[in-house]
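Ticket #4471: structure export looks truncated?
Reporter: QA, pipeline team
Priority: medium

Steps to reproduce: submit the single chain below to the structure queue and open the exported record.
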Amino acid sequence: MSEAAPAAVAQSVLTVQVGDERFALPASDVSEVIRPPAVTRVPLGPSSLLGVANLRGAVMPVVSLHRLLGGEARPSPNARVVVIDRGVPVGLMIDKVTSLGSAGGVSPGTAADEGTGAPARMIDLDALLAKDFGTFTRRAQHRQVQAVANGQDQAALEQNQVALVCFAVAGQDFALPLTSVREVVALPDGVSVVPQTDSVMLGVTSLRGQLLPLVCLRALLGLRTGGQTNERSRVVVARIGNGLVGLAIDGMKEILRLPDSAIDPVPAILTRGNAEAQIQGICRLEGGRRLVSVLSTDHLFRDQALIEQITSQTGKNHDMSTADDASTGDEQFIVFQLGGEEYGLPIGAVDEVVRVPDALTRVPKAPAFIEGVMNLRGRVVPVIDQRRRFKFEAQGERRRERVVVVRIDQMQAGFVVDTVSEVISIPQSQLRPTPDLAADGSQVIDRIANIEVEGRMILLLDPRELLDRAEKDLLAAMGESDPERSAS
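Actual output as written to the record:
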């Protein structure tokens, strides 16, 4: 009697519902099934890409299976995200999970739903994802190397320039040299008052787990106090001596890169007396109609007793006691808001952050996303409406909008954003490579800052790609609007 051949091992599948159809996914591809997480939208991605989410420290693209299959995504109360592993975790948004079990095929390419017995179509995930995304791979590290090189090139161009962070205090404009600023962050909710300290000391706060003394810059400069804090209030984390101090300000305004000649020395009458002036120069803007006082970190704290108080607070935390140690391995970014999401650009690629001019010179036959050109101290800079390029519908608040002027090599352009909120130093440990989110391998999002302790995800833009795309979009739009050029 011959021995019967062993039965084929049934494949285990996860059956899911998308719209009115059921689909079967190989269970070996499924890492986990989770509730829909908070998603950060990614501009200029395929329509099936809902955004990216934080999955226990990893950056996970979340893709609509509805849209991958050519349908429209519809909200579902039972929606789940099926996480699969493709070098990075990839989340597939589905309407609901119906069963997990072995595949009893009812016809080629189908499996039977164990719960209902209804047929479920097998899905080739790789082929489906390849239509919109190519292959999901981690971005190569050469972009980071390139970013460092760009920063070095930019530094060479700026040898005769001074970079300033401008902010408001009691209705006046002040600035600090960018080299003295580690970051500019939102005013924290929790501040611990330290007893028996100077009146200018607001207390101490925690900045990403590190202790930071907080000083009221209004009181320190002898300006009127009692102003109410609001959502625009910020803290400038400045390097004072060998430590870091938080200076409470009313709001951040701009980042400027100016020639040395644009900053005048302080008039001698202001430096009279025993104490040296807290202001090291006066910056002339808008043809002299606007003056910005440049503060001196060396002379900002005149009172030796106050310096000792601050030193005693910074000395309690070794990580905060030395500015160089605190910033080792960190990268600085300018963070801005656009369409309700946070974006960042490497500070070395940003020439300036300025207010939107009252009047822009319109460019004939230019595409809709070109607002016009502006005169930036003798330079003609094209101004691009980044909302339109990212295809956001709502409009920003004009009085809070800013122009972020970006330069790579000889290319320069200004991008209008909703508001600029921070200058932030981000440790390498919180920077994540971005999965390739476009089939052609090109994308504006270079890396993602995943700051879990604050529940934030900041999309970090590649400045070279941002400018390249702007230039390509402009040439394409100009070509479409010029029949003769299009015909040739």
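Status: closed, not a bug. The export was complete when the record was re-opened. Leaving a note from the reviewer for reference: Confidence is low (pLDDT under 50) at residues 1-9, 137-151, 318-327, 482-488.
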